[in-house]
Model the fold of this input.
Amino acid sequence: MEIIISETYDEMSRLAADMIKHQLLKKPSSVLGLATGSTPVGLYKELIRLHKEQGLDFSQVITFNLDEYLGLPPSHDQSYHYFMDQNLFHHVNVTPNNIHVPYGHTEDIEEFCQWYEDQIERAGGIDIQILGIGGDGHIAFNEPGSSLGSRTRLKTLTKQTIDDNARFFENEADVPRFAVTMGVGTILEARKIIMLANGAKKADIVAQALEGPVTAQVSASALQLHPDVVVILDAEAGKTLRRADYYKWVYNEKKRLIPGMIGKTT
Ligand code: GLP
Done:
């Protein structure tokens, strides 16, 4: 696992965008796993800038989003599909048929979840998966207790997640109680994972996930099992890491001596 503690949110976003840019230049038909939440908004802004100013091409890219609230159709302004349209898809040249966001308004959830898993497989698997981290350590909507081998399925949200996400809704009662989410096992199959976290509120859970034991109680800790994970934090989110000085030293030495190795876990 490579842990980069950047100075600011903007630097964190730029570093992540740069890694995606290199992936798309290497393989224009890359399969990207995408996340919602406030954390990746800066990354998406930077990707839009790279598209507009440098012609970064998304026409062959295939996307899979991590999760969606149950019961919210794509047109709902709090659905994750709507969020992706507003924050990325409408501003780059991604081909609409190549976009996959779990459908939160489906009749047969189990059948849909299996179909979603099959689509990921048919696309050849995810090349880079972007992740944020929830206040309770969840990745996607894999709340504490989610099996580390779990697949795409229906999850009940914790009270903490409902409270955390209530800021986007008119009131707490409007926050859906269920979501369709990729499983931890699904996520771990991505070839590369980039997890982002910013702000002091995330510092303790980030430290538990990265430096604590691997446990289903903190889904993000499962990333320790993956061979190619890059975690990019801002200074606030990285401030309680026990080995923060070491991570900074590694990053600076790489920058100085082998810049091409940044973001390539070794
Ligand atoms: C939601 C999403 C997660 C996201 C998390 C953090 O619960 N399901 O994928 O990582 O929120 O959100 P934020 O980035 O707003 O802190």
Q: What stands out?
A: Residues 35-39, 66-67, 132-134, 140-141, 161, 165 surround GLP (CB under 6 Å). The chain is about 35% helix and 15% strand. The first helix runs from residue 9 to 26. The domain at 2-261 is CATH 3.40.50.1360 (Rossmann fold).
